[in-house]
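Researcher: Next entry in the queue.
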Amino acid sequence: MIRFSLICEHEHEFEGWFRSNSDFDRQKKRGFVDCPTCGSRKIEKALMAPAVSTSRNHEKVALAMGEAQKQALAQLKALADKVRENADYVGDRFAEEARKIHFGETDPRGIYGEATPEEAKSLAEDGVEFMPIPSFPEDRN
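Model: Structure for this entry, 141 residues:
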């Protein structure tokens, strides 16, 4: 899934999640995308920076957790671990490998790695489906 920042003709900004660029275009053409504030169907993509981690220097975020948050975090970590266990690590070749899979130049398979914000934006514009995998402190050894 890809998150787009959207804006209507009246400059109301909102977000939408779509499977791909072409999915957004298809839904917009059929009139399925409208502004939650005013109902306008004249919607365009707004400029946005993709949420892709590109370095080992990460911000420190504090979260006071109750039992429900601890359980949700444990489930999220388990999911991220499962994704990594069932995919090939391609490092900084992520964008290149994702394109090869998308365009049928190599056999489909799960991959993960790193991408710059520019590479992520380009992948999204090309309709390549991808999503960030959460990184946990214990993953950064």
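Model: The chain has a mean pLDDT of 83.
Researcher: Noted, moving on.
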